[in-house]
């Protein structure tokens, strides 16, 4: 429930909802992910018409490609987050970014990439995050930056640093 201007409720409308609203066709959800200011939502679950294998589904704001559905159009219904090889084990939503960690530890992000792949492009397909190193343990996407706790225990961050959010002292 709540604001729904970009379809982030997932009920097929852009009508603000003042009470809990079920998302049609999405069942067996094991986790839900929503960012504080991202205006998009994701869930790990099974779509009735798409089989029984858990999949990451996302909906809502998509102006930077953060839903990974090969478009830059907002969605008021869920669509599969495409292009990830491996079982999704962690998800974090930033302002215009969706980052996922798969079972192997590799991290992929779609949307406004904030320099995570060596550039600051917008991508509607998830790209491997080179700034995260080879393996990640946890991910956290912020307003314009993202951090990963690497397999060796170090923390690596990338993105906007205008307020010192990368912790580099500069």
SSE layout:
Elements (H helix, E strand, L loop, with lengths): L25 E9 L5 E8 L7 E6 L14 E6 L7 E6 L3 E6 L4 E6 L9 E7 L7 E6 L3 E6 L4 E5 L11
Antiparallel strand pairs: 1-2, 2-3, 3-4, 5-6, 6-7, 7-8, 9-10, 10-11
Instruction: Report how far the terminal alpha carbons are from each other.
Output: 40 Å
CA-based gyration radius: 16 Å
Low-confidence stretches: none
The secondary structure category is mainly beta
Q: Write the element-wise H/E pattern from the N-terminal end onward.
A: EEEEEEEEEEE
Mean pLDDT: 83
Instruction: Report the portion of residues in β strands.
Output: 35-45%
User: What is the number of E strands?
Assistant: 11
The gross shape turns out to be globular
The strand order across the widest sheet is 1-2-3-4
Helical fraction equals: under 10%
Biggest pleated-sheet summary: 4 strands, antiparallel
Q: Please tally the helical runs, counting DSSP H or I stretches of 4 or more residues.
A: 0
Keywords, please?
170 residues; mainly beta; four-stranded antiparallel beta sheet; 11 strands; globular
Concise synopsis of the structure shown:
This protein is mainly beta and 170 residues long. 0% of the residues lie in helices and 42% in strands.
What does this structure look like?
This protein has a 4-stranded antiparallel β-sheet, with no helix packed on it. A 4-stranded antiparallel β-sheet has the order 5-6-7-8, with no helix packed on it. The N and C termini lie far apart (40 Å). It is built from no helices and 11 strands. The chain is mainly beta and 170 residues long. Helix content is 0%, strand content 42%. The model has no long low-confidence stretch (mean pLDDT 83). It has strands at residues 26-34, 40-47, 55-60, 75-80, 88-93, 97-102, 107-112, 122-128, 136-141, 145-150, 155-159.
